[in-house]
Amino acid sequence: MGNSTPNDTMAKLVALCKRRGFIFQSSEIYDGINGFWDYGPYGVTMRREVEKLWWKYMVEDRENVVGLDTTIICNPRIWEASGHLAQFSDDMIDCLKCKKRFRSDQMEDVGVCPACGSKELTEPREFNLMMKTFVGPVFDDEHVAYLRAETCQPIFVDFDQTRITSRQKVPFGIAQTGKAFRNEINPRFFTFRSREFVQMEMEFFCHDEEAMDWYAYWRAQRWAFYTDLLGFPEESLRIHDHDKLAHYAKAALDIEFEYPFGWGEMEGVHHRGTWDLSRHSEFSGKDQTYFDQERNERYLPTVVETSCGLDRIFLALLCKGYKEDMVATRKEGKQEDVRISLSLPPLVAPVQVAVLPLSKKLADTAQPVYADLKKAFRAEYDATGSIGKRYRRQDEIGTPFCVTVDFETLEDQCVTVRDRDAMTQERIALDQLKTFLMGKIFA
Ligand code: ATP
After folding, report:
1. Which fold has domain 351-441?
2. Please, which of 167, 212, 270, 327 could form a disulfide with 339 given CB 3.0 to 4.6 Å?
3. Angle (deg, nearest 10), helices 41-55 and 310-321
4. Atom of ligand 1 nearest to the CA of 187
5. What ranges make up the beta strands (E) of 148-301?
6. Which pLDDT value is given to residue 126?
7. Homologous superfamily of 6-88+129-318 in CATH?
8. What are the residue boundaries of the structural domains of the chain, listed by start?
9. What is the DSSP string of 366-422?
């Protein structure tokens, strides 16, 4: 990212996301709404691909994890039992001078405003993060409900039902992806801290004696997801072991990524003890214990959780992939120009291959190539503008391979394949093209 400051880099990324239709402000024509973001055509494709990759890795490729999709609004007693209504809060402090609001745990000095330096601040006040709504026609306390603040609580509530219907035995896991809502005091760093976001969580139920082994197992699996599947370099990630633990937990860690604004949590792996199932047993009056036939023992399973934010992974992929370099240009008065590219993993790039005929006259040859590639890859056809401009556009949306059809193609039945990162150009025979790209994209 060259000599850019963190703020520059984030501003450039935000601009790129808007320009190319990855992410933009929600309700923009009404001046937006703080902490809410819309994913445009390329953004939604890529976000879904990351989610699909997680789902395949965590659910489909395993015998001992099953999927679930629960509602966003649940019986509010769930949030009483989980402790969210009593404790899911942050302390906020307002600056009386510039009127900005901060989370006290994110302030370097709780006596000084981080924005304007004023010392005229309010005392810290507790602020519950649950988003409130009403269910039914009467808007009173009896009809209050909440948008889920995390996707895991309904998993705990459905534990027994899911176990029985899926014929799973402990140890096994239940996974879910979906929206979560938090009334964050200070949404910031683009999508990193939003008020509406997607979580991908897996709760693994096991015997307490085995829980620390499963914790080590899931820690390794989750690390491999980032390094092996998404191609994060080891040095861009770190594990932060928590020193302060909840009273019921034996261990907890965060997997952090080095964003331009500093290290930030992408995922948590947590030993949650029997806290959640015991609370839901108590509050619902329905016994959640499990009879383990092999051990001939009845117990409340201990939970090991992996919990990540899809939007934070998405943002990390953009930050990791953003590159600027100088390339030769034919622009008037210039010999070199900045080339912006997004080095996205081919598996999740919104467009995996672009077909670019050198001239519109080549459509009869280029269209069938495109039609064929589209069956196997996310492909795009672009015949407008100079070839240089078309390459630039594909570089900015992170397309790993561009296939150029030129007049020679008519004679030699070959096309040029350009690699986004290496900038190499290779001549490939049309009848080899699909196999060649398969090897590169799905290797
Ligand atoms: P933080 O300390 O950053 O507020 P957290 O510890 O409260 O996060 P968890 O409750 O453990 O987060 O949630 C699990 C995951 O959900 C996080 O690792 C993160 O990726 C994601 N997440 C949490 N809050 C947000 C948010 N406001 N915006 C986007 N993603 C979030």
Report:
1. Rossmann fold (3.40.50)
2. 327
3. 110
4. 27
5. 172-181, 196-206, 237-241, 252-259, 262-273, 290-292, 297-299
6. 84
7. Bira Bifunctional Protein; Domain 2 (3.30.930.10)
8. 6-88+129-318, 89-128, 351-441
9. HHHHHHHHHHHS-EEE--SS-HHHHHHHHHHHT-SEEEEE-TTHHHH-EEEEEETTT
Best residue among 177, 312, 315 to mutate for probing ligand 1's pocket (most ligand atoms within 8 Å of CB) is 312
Whole-prediction pTM = 0.93
Around ligand 1, the residues with Cβ closer than 6 Å are: 150, 182, 184, 193-194, 197, 199, 265-268, 307-309, 311-312
Closest ligand 1 atom number to CA of residue 267:
18
Q: How far is CA 253 from CA 172, 184, 275, in A?
A: 21, 22, 18
Helices and strands, counts by H and E, the chain: 13, 23
Contact 239, 253 (CB under 8 A): yes
Q: How far, in Å, is the centroid of ligand 1 from the Cα of 161?
A: 28
pLDDT in tens, 130-144: 999 999 999 998 999
CA-based nearest residue to 272, from 227, 242, 317, 240: 242
Average pLDDT, integer, range 56-65: 98
